Amino acid sequence: MRFWILLLPLGAVAFAPSAVIPTRRSHQLFSTAESAQSTTFTSTPNDDAYDFAVGPSVRYWTDYQPASTDGIENLRNAAAKAVGKASADPRAFQYWTYHLARATFFAGQGAAAVLNYRLTDSTSSSSSGLNVLDAPKNPITSGGPNVLLDFVGSIFPEAISTWEQDWEQINANKFSLPYDMRQGVTSRQLNPLYLADQTRRYIKEAQSILTRRNRRLESDIGAAPDPTDTFPYPAYYKNNFHFQSDGWFSEDSAKVYDSSTETLFLGRQDAMQRLALYPMATWAKDRGVKEGGEGLNILEVACGTGRLNAFVRDNYPAANMVASDLSNFYLAEAKGHAERWEKFARREKRGLQVGNFETLQCSAEELPFDDESQDVVINVYMFHEMPTEARRAAAKEMSRVVKPGGLLTWVDSVQKGDRPSMDETLGNFQYLNEPHYPSHIVEDVAALFVEAGLVPYEKHVASTSKGLSFVKPKVE
Predict the structure, then answer these.
(1) Are 27 and 385 contacting, i.e. CB atoms less than 8 angstroms apart?
(2) 379 sits in which H/E element
(3) Do 338 and 402 have their domain in common?
(4) What global pTM score does this model have?
């Protein structure tokens, strides 16, 4: 996920780098006469109207500003801070060197993709046909080195702050040091062949995405499953979100997703997704959950490639887990993550009790589970790609399957008011073929879950992601 990085290749970042969010789920198609900016949304969510226990991260990110407007100074200060953190103890060294190495890799990968695009671009001088997304030209792919340097200088310190927050949670034993850091040299992410394949896939995909994004023709919008695939996908889902090739309907899309989003966010997506674990730690302690999560039924709705799913199981290995998604291609990747985690976990701790794991293709609006059958429901990065009516239906369904006393933990893009300095540009993410993003950033998400019978629990923020959690009241 995501400094150099950021390179932005995925390009959208050009307008509001910090506002770009990992995407994985759904969308309605634009009609010929319809554009992303056809509707103006002026309201602002009011989380303060609900009784959330507010973590310190909320105030931190509300007030966050880069220390300097000078890119080089920001990079130097952020690097010095990271090195200082890494010297604290062996675990800190493991955590911080891992993230710095990943950020360097993603930055290089992103830079290579931008260079490749600049050398081969055929869309910058002219375009023809209907321009359905009338967005300004992306300075990241057309500007000089100073543009890139200042951009990276604004994002790298934010990545450091995101990791610092994540590390504090680990140090407080809210969740464990991520398993792929504990794997050491056996981690797939250190395998040269795997890294080379990911870079190959990413550069190819970035070329396609930037070409579509910069010419923005009607023919560049939309995706469809294979004609033999008869699954009843929602209409909004048949879109190539953020102009990715094939939408969610191919193996290639699934295999390049993690690398694309981590490059886009300069390696901070994992830490942002782990916001889902914050309230789980509090809830498990308050409820007296058995060690390892024994006896729990956990459901992740819209699991994507399953990377977060593996982090959840690493902390609650004895729990029974279902990972659901609309894309069978992404579910296949989730199975791979699950198998790699389980193999490592059993090797790391012999005799470890591991709960059942299964994947399931289904819609968030129609979950095939009994009422009050799940102890924990997790949903990450889905709402911003759904129209409001689908969000409401999904909130109702997820709330329905939670047991009395159970937890629902939700993570998605920050909204208006969460990062005031970004409010004016936050909606620009719509230009990366995200038609429902403008309504997402003003949606009263808490109201959707409260209306469905849940009670606010905790609120946390990490960089450009926000986490809200809810519990279902017990019947007296």
Answers:
(1) yes
(2) strand 374-380
(3) yes
(4) 0.88
For residue 239, name the pLDDT band (cuts at 50, 70, 90): very high
**DSSP state at residue 143:** S
CB of 353 closer than 8 Å to CB of 292: yes
Token pair of 35 as six digits: 């554009």
Token pair listed for 209? 């995405």
CA gyration radius, the chain: 21
Residues 343, 402 within the same domain: yes
Q: Is the dihedral of CA 205, 207, 213, 218 positive or negative?
A: negative
**293 and 259, same domain (yes or no):** no
Task: Report which DSSP code applies to 175.
Answer: S
**How many other C-beta atoms are found inside a 10 Å radius of the C-beta of residue 277?**
26
Alpha helices by DSSP H, listed for 224-327, are 251-264, 269-273, 277-287, 307-315
Q: Do 464 and 344 have their domain in common?
A: yes
- Supply the range of the domain harboring residue 316: 271-471
CATH of the domain at 360: 3.40.50.150
Structurally, the chain folds into a number of domains equal to 2
SS3 label, residue 297 = strand
Task: Tell me the residue type at 316.
Answer: Y
**More confident of the two residues 365 and 79:** 365
